[in-house]
Amino acid sequence: MTRLVADLAYIAAQDDEPLMGYDWDVDRKAYIRLLGEYDMTRNPTALAEFVKVIELA
Asked: 46: domain range?
């Protein structure tokens, strides 16, 4: 559910074409580790760099 909300918020914030979305095809273990790191530090940089964006068709 969190990924869906993230996608919807990101799409709603865009004004220009092409429409971009998050690429959730990620290494699950690394993603979970980065979520834990974010929980500890509240620094979203590594997590934001890890989850790439792609053009939505």
From this structure: 2-55
